[in-house]
Amino acid sequence: MASATDQDLLEERILTIRRRDRRFSSQAYFFVLDALDYTMSRLGKDALTGEDRHVGGRELLVCIKDYAADHFGPMAQMVFDRWGVHAGEDFGEVVFNLIDAELLSRRPSDSRLDFAETFDFVETFREKHRLSLERIAERR
């Protein structure tokens, strides 16, 4: 867990990002950092070096989708919409803003194109939670 000072620094850097780019809620930035931790724990360490492995954009998007579906359930798309995130490309912008703020690092091969739409968020969340949504609709 981060110390109060680390948390304050993180919050200040995200506020600085938002002063430059108001498209996305601060919660979107915190969510991406949490989703990256989730991704790294899910993918494990590099087999050769034993160190944390680099996570590419497409890998991160897949885990963002799973993490959001588990964390927010059928409300995931509404949460993303509220944060200003509507597509994979938006998560790419969030990630590259975090890189510019020196909160994440990148490899020369990393690109915003790595976040080009690989799946439809709405359809993904709808399918994952179809039964839950049907039960909610039946109660009405």
Keywords:
140 residues, mainly alpha, globular
Enumerate how many helices there are, as a single number.
Answer: 7
- Average pLDDT, rounded to a whole number, is 86
- Regarding quaternary structure, what we see is single chain
Ranges with pLDDT <50 over ≥5 residues?
none
Domains (count): 1
- Derived structural class: mainly alpha
Global shape? globular
Distance between the termini: 42 Å
Q: Determine Rg (CA atoms, Å).
A: 16 Å
* Sheet of most strands: none
In sequence order, what are the helices and strands, one letter per element? HHHHHHH
Q: How many strands in all?
A: 0
**In what range is the share of β-strand residues?**
under 5%
As a percent range, the share of helical residues equals 55-70%
Verbal overview:
The protein has one domain. The radius of gyration is 16 Å and the shape is globular. It has helices at residues 4-20, 26-43, 57-72, 76-83, 88-100, 121-128, 130-139. Helix 2 (26-43) packs across helix 3. The mean pLDDT is 86. It is built from seven helices and no strands. By secondary structure, it is an all-alpha fold.
Question: Which helices and strands, and how do they pair?
Answer:
Elements: H1 4-20, H2 26-43, H3 57-72, H4 76-83, H5 88-100, H6 121-128, H7 130-139
Short summary of the structure?
This protein has 140 residues and is mainly α. The chain contains seven helices and no strands.
